[in-house]
Amino acid sequence: MIKTRHPLGTAIRCVLLGAAFGAAPATAFADTALDADAQVTTLRPIQVIGVSEDSSQIAAPYSVVSGDDVVASGAATIGEALNGQPGVHADTFGAGASRPVIRGQVGPRVKVLSDSASILDASDISPDHAVTVDPLLSQQIEVLRGPATLLYGGGAIGGVVNVLDNKVPSRLPENGLEGRFVLRGNSVADEKAFGAEVSAQLAPNLVVHAESSRRSTDDYRAPGLDEARVDGSFTDSRNSSVGLSWVTDRGYVGLAYSYRDEDYGLPGHSHEYEGCHPHGSALHCGSHDHDHDHDHDHDHGDEHDHLAMINLESKRFDLRGEYTDPFAGISRVRFRSSYTDYSHDEVEDGEVATTFTNKGHDSRVEFEHAPLGNWTGVFGVQHTDTQFGADGLEAFMPDVDTRSTGLFVIEHLDLSEQWHFELGARHEWVKHTPVNDPRGRPEYSDTATSFSGAAIWSFGPDLALTFSASRSERAPHAQELYARGVHLATNTYECGLVPHPLTCGGAANNADYGNEKSTNYELALRRTAGDFTFGVSAFANDFDGYVYARTLDQYEDFRLIKYTQADAEFRGFEAEVGYRFNDMFSMTVFGDRVNAKLADGGGNLPRIPPSRVGTRLNADVGAFSGEIEYIRASAQRDVADFETETPGYDLLNASVSYRILDGNTRLFLRGNNLLDEQIWNHTSFLAKTVPLPGRNLTFGVSVNF
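RESULT FIELD:
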């Protein structure tokens, strides 16, 4: 079992009793009390937003996955590591790229953080672009859903993912030296993965940290294919970091440099539709000798698939610090600042076809004020400045400088032992500026204001009912504004919100555009301790001006899309119920569902994950722990007009681990997809062409010292 102590946001303390049965990840939906003789594992503090010392007073559902469980699961990407958490799925693109999908939202609506600092890569541009954080050496990964996500931006409508690490040491290592070693293999793709980290005390207050990881795989095997393996699903990644911190009793300040170099394949990549282009709202994929209004005589002279891969490089500096009682009225100050120099080449047949770059910095400072009567809270400022560039065959958007500055405040009121309230607000200034754009696409500049509120009624022992509401604004992403060109990863020709002819799609599809607005309501009921625990949450998210890719025309599997704004409705629930039979055995039943439609009968939205239900049985017998997990995912038949239905599937997983040497060494073995089901991931752009891996075994060892 896991005992979790979380200062959410700026280290406002709250104690959460984890629902991790045996080797299962901890989630806030099913917390259980610790027996006096139970093994205790201390997780890192969650860094999102806190409310009080009472675990029942949590205004939003969240999940926590420990680093050990990430390693033992075999997950290689953030999307894989979180897939299966309540309300969380994965947007997969082969084995190299996978983004988290939270309550049906992905890309710019889901914020991925590195220890509360923004990840500045290109993953929000395309599903084949990797999220540049390595889960192999993460301390834990945290997911927050609901209105409190506005602490990190009104655009984080789907949720926030925070990956905690030790790159910048925040405390003195025990006995002057500590670290971790991980070795892992997997059968489905001949994986070889290695990670090591060490923190050493150089002087009374000086700590150095170094870490490195390497992972390589061949093409993975999937059932039901003519070829045994999925061509182009190989990966090879290398990560390293070194950091130095000055640590005192009142806080720390430190700096780290991180380097990532990665190569991975792009399965299903084809140039078959490379020559397609729009004529007004019609897609033209043939010779100009034909009718331009709607000619689908396609040139099949280059039908063969090209070997395609991404070569990625990211260099990043992180400055982090925290200090308690810096001056009167402020109990804690916390700051994060990072600079990232990111680039990747999309290589085809050994030649660079397109280069994407993203350089910029992200800084935030948070102040936790001293209690004012029954009020506690945090306020702060965040500033981000990035320069995005694209050059080559798939440069479907111009170079764009983006700046955003946000002011935020979150306040908590403990009215009584039964009633707790939360209020929050954020105001942002956002500006997108195209650079040296020959088409002269205009600058976009606007403000976005977001509010949130929650009421928590603790009406019984460890029982709480929460109602929360938020009104959030999101400025359109630069891609949504300015796109014009072929995007082969998604098999589309993209036209932005900016009117034709500056983008494309025909003058008849021009419309006013502006900020996307979201109104979210959520009702949650939780029992957080005892042998019987549960968490049930239902939400309704209504969008004004929801930005989506509307299909104007289609030829075979290639579409002409126009980013369009319309009202939309998301409805869903997440539930998890756990029961501990005795000190050795426990069981969890869980499920989630989301429906997403355009308002007023406008049809379904694309790539919405199917509903699923499942159960886990966990056992802890001495040094052994084990888990059997069964998940039933339904067929997805609520599809958009161009989509294909995907079948349901049964997923059976099992794991066993053994701890030796006073619990510091863990041997683990896990079997995933033991039924060898052919699984088509509906949230993926490759849902019709590339299935997920088949039956596989993950095995390895992790050592803490």
